Amino acid sequence: MKAPDFSYEKPNSIPGILSLLEKDELECQLLAGGQSLMPMMNFRMATPKTIVDISGVSELSLITDTPKAIEIGAMVRYCELQDSDVIQKFCPLITMVIPHIAHPAIRNRGTIGGSIGLSDPAAELPAVLLALDGKVEVSSNKGIREEPANKFFKGIYETACSSNELITKIILPKALPKQKFGFYEISRRHGDYAMAGVCIAQDQDLTVRVAFFGVAEKALRIASIEKVLSGNSDFSQSIIENAQNAAEDIQFEGDMNAGPEVKKHLAKVVLERALEGIK
Amino acid sequence: MTGPATVFDKPTDYIGKSIPRSDASRLLRGKGHYVDDIQLPRMVHAVFLRSPHAHARIISIDIKEAEKAKGVIAIYTGNDIAKHVKPYVGVLSHLPGLRSPAQYPLALDVARWQGEPVAVVVCSSRALGEDALELINITYEPLPAVTDTLDALSSESPLIHGEYDSNLAWKREVEVGSLDKALSGDDVIVIERQMKFGRHTGVTLETRATVCDYVPGDDELIMYYAGQAPHMLQFILAKHLSMLEENVRVVAHDIGGSFGIKVHTYGDEIATAIIAKLLKRPVKFTADRLESFVTDIHARDHVVNVKIGVRKDGSIVGIGFNDFTGIGPFSMYPRTSAIECNQILNLTGAPYQFEHYQAVGNVVFQNKTLMCQYRAVGHPIAMAISDCMLEEAARVIGMDPVQIRKKNLIPDDAYPTKSATGMRFDDLSHHACLDKLLEIMNYDKLLSDQEEHRKKGIYRGIGFVSLVEVTNPSPMFYGIGGAPIASQDGATVRLDAAGALHVSSSVTEQGQGTNAILQQIAADVFGVSIERVKVTTGDTATVPYGGGTWASRGAGIGGEAMLQAAYALKEQVLSTAAVILQAKAEELDIASGEVVLKSSGEQKISLGDLAKIVYYRGNELPNDLQPELIATRHYRVTDFPFVFTNGAMAAHVEVDTNTGLIKILHFWAVEDCGRVINPQLVDDQIRGGVVQGIGGALYEECVYDADGQMQNASMADYLVPMASEMPEITVAHVETFTKTSVLGAKGAGEAGTGGAPAAIMNAVNNALSPLNCGIWQMPMTPERVLRALGKI
Ligand SMILES: Cc1cc2nc3c(=O)[nH]c(=O)nc-3n(C[C@H](O)[C@H](O)[C@H](O)COP(=O)(O)OP(=O)(O)OC[C@H]3O[C@@H](n4cnc5c(N)ncnc54)[C@H](O)[C@@H]3O)c2cc1C
């Protein structure tokens, strides 16, 4: 469990990162908090020739409050999200979710860009991004583009960000006073990746977005559930049941702790509990 | 009365008090000295290539490319290593019929578990060694893997060892009374269940590690070792590497947990010693976590078909069961992998009175990591069989679980006595422990709380266990069967010229505080301040000969030897002091480092001054006096095969019937370990043990697929309970001193692990009882709970 030899670069600008990626797209890998990449390298599941540490670029660590949105730099760490008043005020779903991601030691290092960029099917933040209908700013030598959340996650460890690109920002709409959010996850131990989890956002016009994680090959929104829930100000038992039935549409994927049937059952449970706790 | 019995005639200074461990300060400062911290000149690293298959023939091994890799010094295959070692066989003569083939450090022609070492690269660094491993080209012919314990015994199963007619390693049957006849009685209610216990492992914080060094001129092999039984390993190395035992030195410094994992013979460690000899230079091997998961011994792995018969009044008529234990492809050397099953046959139902007992144990080979002794060997299974069935019987006949226990537990005034299985008991206190438990847990309040919550659809449960624990074993455990494992231990106590005590002992410190209690005993019995006692353990070159630390024997056996040695030295010092002071030895005593008058406490001479006279100014002594300021004593248990302890524990749980998650709300443990030498250390042993029991009950499992591949060999996927999963654990004691020693201490280290799983399973089944379902498999995972509930 020792990584093979690699070289290490720490550019101090975004162009510096991008030119390294351009030069050596296949052999390079970005290093953010390292909480997923370093174990993968030690297991020799990832064997980059060069790792490009992106923590030397200060603008990647900014949380910016713009008139329309909250922009979170890719290098912003979980612990910084947790402590941020701006996030608490405008992205309360993030504040609800962070304590469920791993443990303090990992949250001190892990980043939002790392989580979004990795697209672990059981990670929380991809589902948050989906439920909030946010965008991902992706940069490469060819320029900057914004990918809407619902087009970003492609599959297990697969995203719309290709290997010569860098996620620079996560852009989230600001929470409005009457918007409500719900979250629930089930894990075997506190801080473990979820066996099933869901993030819910209800807009002022009662549009509802529901994003699951830990139940399929990626974090995903379920249109049929959103249809059942949208337009309701309260969720009666029968609405919840209809939504639960609609959850059967999900292509469930089992893992070590839960087979597909268990995932299906738990998806319904987390949905009900998140709806009950919505605020 | 004279002699050591007088030790407890007056109040103690240290024994019985929560004296902080003196090594805690150093360890917390990060100044621990573990095997992996050792850096020796010219040291190289042994890096093992391990079989990716659970069962495969090794057709060829091509090392040509790897030999050219950077940093590589040598590469050895299984056959290369085998030339330098006598193979070992994990059988013992007191387990008649147990069979296991000869084992070599590395696989020869066939690899029999995923993780078995196949080749070893010796390299200038571990990382470069891992690079070189990727260049070794092995052609395997995969063979069918035998994984399921029950299937392994079918006549259609592939055989793991061609020379045997089946995959059965050992079978033992015990029959007391006539169970079938007794259970057929009209007034007998018979309940049958199949119980399953998953494999788990010890997960020591410090992984297995060794540095071996060879000194050619002296033909001396030094093994730095992170284990529990240095003298056992000394014997094994000498025997199998054909060396003189005195030329093998095994040294253990600080150890980061062991739990039984590190008390066995591992091929990679033996190979490391062989390589050090071949290369005549120090070689380090530190298992990484992945290697630990697939090579450290696993534990448990049982399927048990069990039945119990009770009468309407709750009295147990008899217990019968058939246990199938999967042990991997070999029986571990030298303790064997049959002891776990043997313990279950010996201990099931041991706290209770009943007449009819029928038990069959089947120890079965499989293509998985070897299974062997881990903390509380066999106990969690034995206790779960009898206690979970007993509480199930209580539910069936509508009796309170406490009442049915009280009805059947051996009365506290019945000792000495024997269990149905013939185990000899003395000084036990099942009823006193249960009464104390009920008092500290406030059982009646929990029952009303349970009622209240049930009305709200919240399912809480209370479960109990009454347990016995095998501690302080006599030679009847291993020695009788031919194992090089001492049951006696020694202690040496020496007074230095400054008046301080240097003590050494053959029991070992793995982080549990053995050194601290040895210090307490020596200081107390001899009469010096505890700061003036230095302890040495773990080095075969300097400590007396003895067994080490396992089977909860460190305090009871090692502690008694220390007491005897300290007392002997005190007598010697006082007789010298009597000459110097021209007084009578009987009138003198030692207190706080001074020789004093027994009657008044008046200080006559300090130990430092006395020692200086003896060591430097012997001219002041009469010529016929040759003082001995050193004493050694040994101790073994003679009156009983084992000194059993007992306890009672309870768990309070809440089962989320929608998610299958189980939360332990509180856990209580009352333990009778005889004399409590250091309450804080004992309480923390109990707590740590309970947490490992929680692991086995709810979280920890080595998950294998049908091909024998372990699926969760990392700390992310193998779930150990962490701080969030640890409930409040309240510990209390009943102290019934064992009459087998002056110290009166029995073991305490394994009780929590042995008892907790049964108490938790009982609590879960108590919680589920209004829903008319139950769970009989550990760990009780959410998926299994949901299945039991019929939710999926
Ligand atoms: C014990 C443990 C428990 C955990 N539990 C959870 C959990 O419950 N929930 C959860 O969500 N996560 C969990 N994690 C994972 C943790 O959240 C990771 O930190 C996170 O997934 C990756 O973030 P990072 O900053 O550490 O990324 P890194 O490990 O540095 O990188 C991860 C991947 O993302 C790529 N990457 C990083 N930054 C960018 C970028 N700006 N643009 C493009 N690609 C990028 C890297 O190249 C790499 O492939 C756990 C980790 C551990 C060790």
Q: How are the secondary structure elements laid out?
A:
The complex is a heterodimer of chains A (279) and B (792).
Chain A: E1 7-9, H1 14-23, E2 28-31, H2 37-42, E3 50-53, E4 63-65, E5 69-73, H3 78-83, H4 85-90, H5 92-97, H6 104-107, H7 112-118, H8 124-131, E6 135-140, E7 143-148, H9 149-152, E8 153-155, E9 158-159, E10 166-173, E11 180-186, E12 196-202, E13 208-213, E14 220-221, H10 223-229, H11 237-246, H12 260-276
Parallel strand pairs in A: 1-3, 2-3
Antiparallel strand pairs in A: 4-5, 5-10, 6-7, 6-10, 8-9, 11-12, 12-13, 13-14
Chain B: H1 24-28, E1 44-50, E2 56-62, H2 64-67, E3 72-77, H3 78-82, E4 110-111, E5 117-123, H4 126-133, E6 137-142, H5 149-152, E7 168-176, H6 179-183, E8 188-201, E9 209-215, E10 220-225, H7 230-240, E11 248-251, H8 267-279, E12 283-286, H9 289-295, E13 298-311, E14 316-326, H10 339-347, E15 356-364, H11 379-397, H12 401-408, E16 417-418, E17 424-425, H13 430-441, H14 443-455, E18 459-471, E19 489-495, E20 501-505, H15 514-526, E21 533-537, H16 554-581, E22 588-591, E23 594-597, E24 603-606, H17 607-615, E25 630-635, E26 643-655, E27 662-672, H18 679-699, E28 728-733, H19 751-768, E29 777-778, H20 782-788
